[in-house]
Amino acid sequence: MIKGDRPQPPSSQPHRTEVERRNVKQGEVLLNLWTGILSKYRTTLHHFPTVGAQGIAPSNAEEAHPVFPMDKFLLDTWFPVEQQRIVMTELLRRVGLTRIRADYFLQLWVYLLVKQNQEKTPALKSPLLQLKLLTEPMICTHREAANLFYGEKDQGSDRAAGLMLDKLTALGLIRKSFDGNTTRIEILPIPELLSAPQAHPSIAAVKPDAFDPRCDAIPVAHLLATNYNWMNRNLHATPHRIAKLLRSWNQQYPTGMRVLRRIDNQNPVGFYLLYPVASDSEANFFQDPNRGLHFSSENEIDPFIMAQAGDQNCLAVYIRSWVIDAPYIQPYQAHFLQDAQQVLHQMKQDFPKLCDLYSMIMHPTYEALAASLGFQKMRNAPSSIYWMYLALDRFLALSLQLLP
After folding, report:
1. DSSP secondary structure string, 12-72?
2. CA–CA dist 117, 390 (Å, integer)
3. Region 28-32: what's the mean pLDDT?
């Protein structure tokens, strides 16, 4: 051996003694114990402030707000199971709202309502007498939502909870806003679940107006894109694609394209498209309604050919789009429908034999509206979207002044 060299350890360790094995076993037990404790209190640890260059600060912007504790057991305490069943029955009547989404929405509503009430009345006692709208948007981080939705389940994460909140927003159940620091959530009015009329903030005055392809295409495209966001097939329903289609259709027949325009800033807050259908395309109304989702289709060929003014064989109008921004639905929906009646009278001059009115119900917000106007489901469809029909003369004869 060269002087200064140290003997190398053997390539394999000798067998452990009984004392060593016992120590290792005790170490494993302690490790498992601490792992369980950390898992049980992970929420508290996530919200523990960390020391940074600026002193004590939360680890990210949303964590600045403590989590209000709520789990399924507390939900049942604050809102009895019997009342939950009644609400769930009403929610499940809405297009696109699955049982799991409805359950998450109900949990979120009760959670935020209790959170708001306890901030004002710390001694608040359960249960809630009824569901009410929030008086103001409430802070709710994605971690709060994840704890609420998934609890101690293995599946679920902050990101999954954020995606579920986006889905509930697209379904017209909540409005979510983020100011750069916190996420705030507002519960939108659901008339069938509210026992008394709720106060609405003042909104700008609007008027029906012609669609302007130069100024309206982009904002209207964003309005329409929300109609597709609640479906999993929304990847191709981009505002860019929608804007291109709107401008193309406007070049062919602008009469049937109208907006609900704010008077103060001229921005559109509503839009409809009455699309005259060539006779060769009418068979599509008796086939899979997915063929009508051209905004979100990968197919560049539109299955519905637009009829040209003067076409004596055109019998059908397809309500290809109908959307009103949520705050304007109740005060201006009837006014917008009356405008549609007037436009259809004009269209009858271009297409003398018009007699059929078709619509596709693909968003829950407008399901009740179509039924109240007299539209009938054409067939029992397993899909969440389906065709509805109303004779044009029946629609034109409706008195819409008293429409709720």
Report:
1. SPPPPPHHHHHHHHHHHHHHHHHHHHHHHTHHHHHTS-EEETTEEE-SSGGGGSPPPP--H
2. 46
3. 58
